[in-house]
């Protein structure tokens, strides 16, 4: 990722942070619409998970500039997700759902440049998580 893409991800995350639960809710709704069977991997009450997702997303957005810290954070997350049954196809679906949720809540601020920056950021996270999951 370029420094400009990192800035775009950080700035857009800052703008959605006040509505973090709404964004997470939209993202999970989108994920389950894409793969209804994935719903079984999650708890019935999603409130705590939505909060945890946004906390982890913020931590990754913060760490992305420090690649070793980013890899450590994403790796730990990947190992935990592997233990819960996450498979490689889930990462693609999660990425699609996240980008759609961001587009919905950012509205016109989701420019092609912002979308590409998020796409690259998610790809980095997913790859680091899947590598760690494979080692777990």
Describe the overall structure.
With about 140 residues, the chain is mostly helical. It has a single domain (about 5-135), classed as Globin-like (Orthogonal Bundle), CATH 1.10.490. Helices cover about 80% and strands about 0% of the residues. It contains six helices and no strands. The protein has helices spanning about 5-15, 20-35, 45-65, 65-85, 90-105, 110-135. The radius of gyration is 14 Å and the shape is globular. It starts with a helix and ends with a helix. The mean pLDDT is about 90.
**What's the CATH class, please?**
Mainly Alpha
Number of strands: 0
Strand percentage lies at under 5%
Helix/strand order: HHHHHH
Report how far the terminal alpha carbons are from each other: 27 Å
Question: What is the architecture at the second tier of CATH?
Answer: Orthogonal Bundle
How does the SSE layout of this entry go?
Elements (H helix, E strand, L loop, with lengths): L2 H14 L3 H15 L12 H17 L3 H17 L4 H19 L5 H24 L1
Helix pairs in contact: 1-6, 2-3, 2-5, 3-4, 4-6, 5-6
């Amino acid at each position: 990722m370029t420094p400009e893409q990192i800035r775009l991800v950080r700035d857009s995350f800052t703008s959605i942070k006040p509505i973090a639960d709404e964004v997470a809710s939209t993202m999970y709704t989108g994920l389950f619409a894409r793969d209804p069977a994935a719903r079984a991997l999650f708890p019935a009450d999603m409130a705590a998970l939505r909060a945890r997702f946004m906390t982890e997303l913020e931590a990754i957005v913060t760490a992305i500039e420090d690649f070793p810290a980013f890899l450590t954070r994403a790796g730990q997350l990947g190992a935990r997700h592997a233990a819960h049954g996450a498979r490689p196809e889930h990462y693609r679906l999660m990425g699609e759902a996240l980008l759609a949720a961001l587009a919905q809540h950012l509205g016109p601020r989701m420019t092609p440049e912002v979308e590409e920056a998020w796409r690259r950021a998610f790809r980095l996270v997913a790859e680091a998580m899947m590598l760690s999951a494979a080692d777990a």
